[in-house]
From TrEMBL:
Family: Belongs to the protein kinase superfamily. Ser/Thr protein kinase family.
Annotated membrane topology: Single-pass membrane protein
A GO cellular component entry from the record: plasma membrane
Protein name per UniProt: non-specific serine/threonine protein kinase
Classification of source organism: Eukaryota, Viridiplantae, Streptophyta, Embryophyta, Marchantiophyta
Keyword Glycoprotein among record annotations: yes
Pfam families: LRR_1, LRRNT_2, PK_Tyr_Ser-Thr
Length: 998
């Protein structure tokens, strides 16, 4: 076992005498004492103590933080009275003992941010990102940190508004609050932050309009004279886009997509904007004519709006790499714009699907040497398709659902394009057999990477990672990342190679000098060969998720401090990617598997004296050490169980055969821990019963309440589901997914358990059956539907690799104390194929009767659309409060037949009595969405991303964070699955849920 001594010795300074009680003497398997332990102990005893170095005010504040976040094992080093001198995790101090940096990303911190954080008055950087259990509101006292330059609290569960007190942080340059649950509006006073260059509040529930100085506060976003980045996408903002925004002289990225903005696009010129994302709003009117002179533009996203008129001539935009105007059905009928017809643009991506285009397709359209993808589907283009000169990079042409009635087959046979789609055109029903190759479904191979296994399918063992280009194995850290606006929508080796070089350049010494970054301890400089992109896929909203492996320098492991530097660097976007890649976000990361040795301080004079003195006493201590070593050996054996609980998972010989789960952060609990937490698994603490076993309510020593899912006693049933759920939940984190806190695997007692967040409000099914005293209102049901959709959309679109849940049902949607929905139970989940929703997984059919996708059942081909079908059934449950199959009647068929007979008016009789007065327009839209989800053919169903967007629209773009209906008492089947209360039918076998099909 490889262990290290976390003690730093300095001249004239002692570790406190009481540390002897907590110090571990390390032993090998023969019980021999490592000499370094003795030396360190005796040097600690004989060196004289020194006064603490940390500013007392900062010490008090940090102690308060430690108490508030006491559940985090990552803060185990927060002990003693000198955070600066004792090297507390995530703490950096200046020479006067003032804390200047607090960097605690991905540390499993839970709780809220206490107001005492405002006492760290010298703080310049605060980063608490990727702590999903960090909740509550941002304290107003953050406004006291007047030296703060960087504030990053991304991917947590922060609620409440943006505190207006943040406007006091006049030194602030970087403000990132992405992917939380924040509500309210943007305070106009933020405009006081004249040094702010990055403002990211994307993926929240921020509403209202964009404040400008002409408003009531007299100050607004147009006063941010240093701003370069507005990342406001995926919120609930409304109103017009103020013209003043386009007057910001340094603004380069304007990301306003997926909101509710309306009105016309301001006809204002900007010479600085590179990327403009206005898609997925309610914008109307024409494309501004002034855009013809905005020559800096690299990307224009205006899809999914209600724009009218015709396209202006954008031929002057020589930097333009992406133009996406799809799904603007109100455009005037018009031919393909002339500036596109000649093939002289520098576009990589052209998307004008459903834009009311008509006429023939100019043969010169495809001749640009840069063009990679063209999507002109669902228009009225007609006549004969003739391919003229073809650009060398063109890989994808989608002309589906047009009126093309002929094709110049002679020219087509010479075309070297990976994908040409012509389905839905008259030519595909003609006798031109030579065009059949173009009338098939899209394989999706151009939107994912890799298309073939790396290195001939070579694999690595021992948790190591395969370098995709060098074909060697190593101990890499893994970063899950996203390009928020790449100009390309095709992923190939050239794109991946260029992105890898540019990511390496971020960490180069040249980039550091160009951006005037100060040298810091443990600063990391990378070369291209240290980076390997393992997988990538283009998402439905034109972003790219990818997995990046970063390998240490040749010949050694990463050091902990170096990994922390890389993560902080990424989170703070210290250096920007070139305009050819757009802005990026880091979604999460995983430490290397093997040892991360801390940098060791060299021994000073005092330490050497201590060693000499210690040596004189070694003989006298041998007897004592022998006893102590024996005890420590026992502890070490116990520690091995904790650090390698699955060492004998696969075989009886005690050797790991590779079948053990690959853990990415789950906490180990011993059997005794869980016996104490659950009162020795007392029946009074049973809160659910399912095919897997029982679920108990438990209380940990720190007071945290958990749910313990225990396999049937004396059995190892469900071993694969157990392994699957640990692996999956330890690497996916989202506010609408139930978090896995840990696990217990005790082979000696045949015990396997999973420990989750406790959801006090039970299952969605509990509420629909009226088992809890307060009924769900219509608005609450909309919120639950939207929250569940967000969790599933994350699994399908943002998890890397994507995940298919395979068992979506109302008993697997749990509700917290505010009735926020969280998707649970991942025992049956499957990793989606590399080509995302376009492919399938051939597998045995498993699922729950009534929710099961009929196409999956018939073909055994599982896709993400199978989850969409199951979710559609849940939507019908929300409407009717009926089980999917009740009295031998299937809810999908019942709803359809009722609609056919009497329309929506007749359906109201089927509605749950608590929502019969819901607004007709919302009911009809919700019903239409549900029926769209349960279409027989998967190709006719929407994606979960599309479902989420439609629910956001139905909800009025307002997901309430404070639904107060009260949970009442807890039902006995909380976390359980047999909600119909029937005996399980013998023709079906189970795997963790009600009526599971094998």
């Amino acid at each position: 076992m490889k262990l290290g001594l976390d003690m730093v010795l300095r001249p004239g300074r002692s570790t406190k005498p009481e540390r002897w009680h907590n110090m571990t003497v390390f032993v090998n398997r023969n019980g021999l004492v490592v000499a370094a332990a003795l030396l360190a102990f005796w040097s600690g005893c004989f060196l004289q103590p020194a006064d603490a170095q940390t500013n007392p005010r900062d010490l008090t504040a940090l102690v308060a933080l430690g108490k508030a976040w006491s559940g985090s094992s990552a803060l185990s080093t927060w002990a003693g009275t000198d955070p600066c001198g004792d090297h507390w995790t995530g703490i950096t101090c200046d020479g006067n003992g003032n804390v200047t940096q607090l960097e605690l990303t991905y540390r499993n911190i839970s709780g809220t941010i206490p107001s005492t954080i405002g006492d760290l008055s010298a703080l310049e950087s605060l980063d608490l990102s990727n702590n999903r259990e960090l909740s509550g509101k941002l304290p107003a006292e953050l406004g006291n940190l007047t030296n703060l330059k960087s504030l990053s609290i991304q991917q947590c569960s922060i609620s409440g508004p943006i505190p207006v007190e943040l406007s006091n942080l006049l030194q602030l340059e970087f403000l990132a609050l992405m992917d939380n649950q924040m509500v309210g509006t943007i305070p106009g006073q933020i405009g006081r932050l004249s040094k702010l260059y990055w403002f990211d509040i994307s993926q929240n529930q921020i509403g209202g309009s964009l404040p400008v100085s002409s408003g009531k506060d007299g100050v607004g976003l147009d006063n941010l004279t240093s701003i370069k980045h507005f990342h406001f996408n995926n919120n609930t903002m409304t109103g017009d886009i103020p013209p003043e925004i386009f007057g910001l002289s340094k603004l380069i990225h304007l990301l306003l997509d997926s909101n509710g903005f309306s009105g016309t696009i301001p006809n204002n010129n900007s010479n600085s904007i590179l990327i403009m994302r206005l898609n997925d709003n309610r914008l109307s009117g024409p494309i501004p004519s002034v855009w013809t002179n905005m020559t800096s533009l690299v990307e224009i996203h205006i899809s999914n709006n209600q724009l009218t008129g015709t396209f202006p001539d954008l031929s002057n935009l020589t930097n333009l790499r992406l133009l996406d105007a799809s799904n603007n059905v109100l455009f005037d009928p018009q031919p393909i714009p002339t500036f596109l017809a000649t093939g002289t643009t520098n576009l990589l991506t052209l998307s004008m699907a459903k834009c009311n285009l008509e006429g023939s397709i100019p043969s010169g359209l495809f001749s640009s040497p840069f063009l990679q993808k063209v999507d002109l589907s669902d228009n009225n283009l007609n006549d004969t398709l003739t391919f003229g000169s073809i650009g060398k990079n063109l890989q994808y042409v989608d002309l589906e659902d047009n009126k093309i009635d002929d094709i110049n087959t002679a020219a087509a046979n010479g075309v070297n394009i990976q994908t040409i789609l012509l389905r839905g055109n008259p030519v595909c029903t003609s006798t031109l057999l030579k065009v059949e190759q173009f009338c098939v479904a899209d394989s999706g191979s151009t939107t994912s990477y890799p298309q073939l296994p790396f290195c001939g399918g070579k694999d690595c063992s021992g948790g190591q990672v395969l370098h995709s280009r060098l074909c060697i194995c190593g101990d890499a850290m893994i970063c899950q990342m996203r390009l928020n606006s790449p100009p390309f929508q095709i992923v190939n080796q050239d794109i991946i190679g260029q992105l890898t070089k540019e990511l390496a350049h971020l960490f180069s010494e040249n980039a550091s000098q160009t951006e005037n970054l100060p040298r810091v301890p443990n600063q990391v400089f990378l070369v291209t060969d240290q980076l390997s992109i393992e997988s990538a896929n283009i998402t439905g909203n034109s972003r790219m998720n990818f997995t990046l492996a970063i390998f240490p320098p040749t010949g050694r492991d990463w050091r902990t401090q170096e990994v922390d530097y890389i993560v902080t660097f990424f989170y703070n976007n210290s250096v920007h990617l070139p305009k050819t890649q757009g802005p990026y976000s880091i979604l999460g990361y995983t430490y290397p598997i093997f040892g991360l040795p801390s940098n060791k301080s060299s021994l000073g004079t005092g330490a050497l004296v201590g060693i000499i003195v210690a040596a004189a006493f070694v003989v006298l201590l041998l007897a004592f050490v022998g006893v102590y070593a024996f005890r420590q050996k026992r502890r070490a054996e116990k520690a091995e169980v904790i650090t390698r609980p699955f060492a004998s998972w696969g075989t009886k010989s005690g050797k790991d055969d590779g079948a053990a789960p690959k853990l990415m952060g789950a906490r180990y609990f011993s059997l005794n821990d869980l016996k104490k937490a659950t009162g020795n698994f007392a029946e009074r603490n049973v809160i659910g019963v399912g095919g897997y076993g029982k679920v108990y309510k438990g209380t940990l020593p720190d007071g945290e309440v958990v749910a313990v899912k225990r396999a049937q006693e004396g059995s190892m049933q469900g071993k694969e589901e157990f392994k699957n759920e640990i692996e999956l939940l330890s690497r996916v984190h989202h506010k609408n997914l139930v978090s896995l806190l840990g696990f217990c695997y005790d082979k000696d007692h045949n015990e396997q358990m999973l420990i989750y967040q406790f959801m006090p409000s039970g299952t969605l099914r509990d509420h629909l059956l009226g088992r809890l005293r307060d009924p769900l209102t219509w608005q609450t049901r909309l919120n639950i539907a939207l929250g569940s959709a967000m969790g599933l959309s994350y699994l399908h679109e943002q998890a890397s690799p994507p995940v298919i849940h395979r068992d979506i049902k109302s008993t697997n949607i749990l509700l917290d104390d505010k009735l926020v929905a969280r998707v649970a139970d991942f025992g049956l989940s499957k990793t989606a194929p590399p080509d995302g929703s376009k492919g399938h997984v051939s597998t045995q059919v498993k699922g729950t009767l009534g929710y099961l996708d009929p196409e999956y059942y018939m073909t055994q081909q599982l896709t993400e659309k199978s989850d969409v079908y199951s979710f559609g059934v849940v939507l019908l449950e929300l409407l009717t409060a009926r089980a999917p199959i009740e009295n031998n009647k299937y809810i999908v068929r019942e709803v359809r037949e009722t609609l056919e007979k009497g329309g929506v008016a007749a359906l109201r009789a089927m509605l749950d009595g608590h929502i019969k007065d819901c607004p007709s327009n919302e009911l009809e839209d919700f019903l239409q969405l549900a029926l769209h989800c349960v279409e027989e053919a998967s190709k006719n169903r929407p994606t979960m991303d599309e479902v989420q967007k439609e629910l956001e629209r139905i909800c009025g773009h307002s997901l309430s964070s404070s639904v107060g209906v009260g949970a009442g008492g807890l039902a006995k089947d909380l976390y359980g699955d047999d909600f119909l209360g029937r005996s399980r039918e013998t023709q079906f076998q189970y795997s963790g849920g009600f009526t599971q099909l094998n």
